[in-house]
Amino acid sequence: MLKTVLVVEDEPLNIKLLKDVLRYAGHAVIEAVNGQEGVDLAIANKPDIILMDIQLPIMDGMEATRILKANPDTRNIPIIALTGYAMTGDENRMREAGCDGYLSKPFKVAELLRMMNSMSGQNSAGDA
Ligand code: MN
Q1: From the CA of 128, how far away is ligand 1's center (Å)?
Q2: What pTM was computed for the model?
């Protein structure tokens, strides 16, 4: 099932990796390089799913997730948190902020695609 994926990530190598993988899988990719841009682009584009880095400039991924989950227009978009710092409690904090899935870097591409597919029912009203 093809999706529009919003990637909120500030690390150029990670952006390139995610873009390559997602496009290869047939998805359309929108990029945001900080949390505020992520919130703005999510509201403007209503992507099918959001991949959210946690450590981001201007606004971090936790705050961006809270804002999107508090907004009736965006709260149903599944958010997968991608974190580089595997601190104890990090996953719990992101889940409390409202994210729907969580992967710590480095993760396997197959694992990411599997998680995306498992969430496809949550926001797929328009999908065939
Ligand atoms: Mn980052």
Answers
A1: 34
A2: 0.90
